[in-house]
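Dear U.,

For the methods section draft, I wanted the exact inputs and outputs in one place so we can describe them consistently. I've listed the two proteins in the order they'll appear in the manuscript figures. Please don't edit the token lines directly; just add comments below if something needs changing.

First protein:
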Amino acid sequence: MDIHEQLRDIKTQLRLSMNGVVSQSMREKGLVYKLNFGVDLPRIKEIAAGYEKSHALAQALWKEEIRECKILAGLLQPVDSFIPEIADIWVENIRNIEIAELTCMNLFQHLPYAPSKSFQWIADEREYIQACGFLTISRLLLKKGEMDERASEEFLDQAISAFLSGPFHVRTAATTAIRRFVQYNEANAFKVCRKVDNLKDSALETEKLLFNMVKEGVES
């Protein structure tokens, strides 16, 4: 079966699994897609399991402006052929937080260059690129919490700045990353406490929120 036939077959399976109620609910929650069949994630994974991982198929799926095709692309893309330049093209094409979260979980966190690429992304001005950077770092922190001194300083400076002044999705992703960093070990917790200690009596609501979030993370 060639790529066009596989793509046609996948779209047929998606149409047979479509759920208009779920699709409508997503729209109401702000998850807007050009086309959304409302297929649930377990079913999307079932469809993915019917195909070998394929660079050509994943690239074709990613180009489709269809929610489920974007998710399948992240599941079917082999890591070894996903070069950094393609990662940048994909991340620039992400338009909502669901695709950001799922692509970071299914693909970006597994890339051999994920640590360096995620730091490049968190320094970007664009909302979903920045969010993908923090989401990828959060995933990496779950697997391996160590960062060298320079990396941890850069990460914390960017994450704190994102928490205090970033757009909503960037702020949420940065919050998760800070929590994961704090929870990894006492040395990490101490580093973050040192960074936010001067915010304890701040008159600004966001600065107080950050201080209390770190405090809760350290005490939990």
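Second protein (the one for the lower panel):
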Amino acid sequence: MKRVAVGVADLRRKPKFRSERVSQLVYGEAVTADGGEGGYLKVVGPDGLAGYMQKTLVGDLDGDRAYKLAARHAAEGLQFPFGSYLSEKEASKYRVPKKLLVPIEKKFDPTTLSRAFMGVPYLWGGTSDFGYDCSGFTQRLYRFSGVELPRNSSWQRDAGEKVKGFETAERGDLVFFSGHVGMLLKGRQMIHANLSHGGVSITDLGDGSPYSRALMEVFQGIRRFERLKAA
């Protein structure tokens, strides 16, 4: 097992730089390497998604992971995004403020920190606060909360517990549309990474706007995952 040794590492569909970015992993996340080609390793991430990652982006990091970062931190030329995983030694070495260090086992409501990412730009395949796509945003928030979701919106749609409708939906439930996913905050308000607004924004699906009506025309359902509360 190896770990991502840079702030954000792209996972590519094929072992070449111009290949599609299918996902990303952040500092300290584990990958299982199985062969490779040229300067790329074939790896499998924590969600089971396989792809190719440049060899220079992974390494054998010292120490068990003790913390996850509640916000971005910069030190010694590295940018550690939200959700990075650090050991005790690394937390000390990079002088990470205690307020950013969350014990790795601590559970959260996935909506707790979601508004902090308002305006983060949309990035195809993105899973970090440098850029998210829709399912990368929901996956990252849930992973920080202690629940592992599938990577893509269609896979997330087929997981979890089916919710009958908005009348019985709860904060944190995921709302699915054709090729898109968002997370409910209250009522019909959802936070989501979307290309239409260029990044993370909040949409009220009941406001009657052309955008909301267009989304509801391709609405596919609501799913609920494990309910977690902050300790």
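Candidate sentences for the figure legend, describing the second protein: The chain has three domains: 2-59, 67-103, 114-224. The longest strand covers residues 30-37.

Thanks,
Y.
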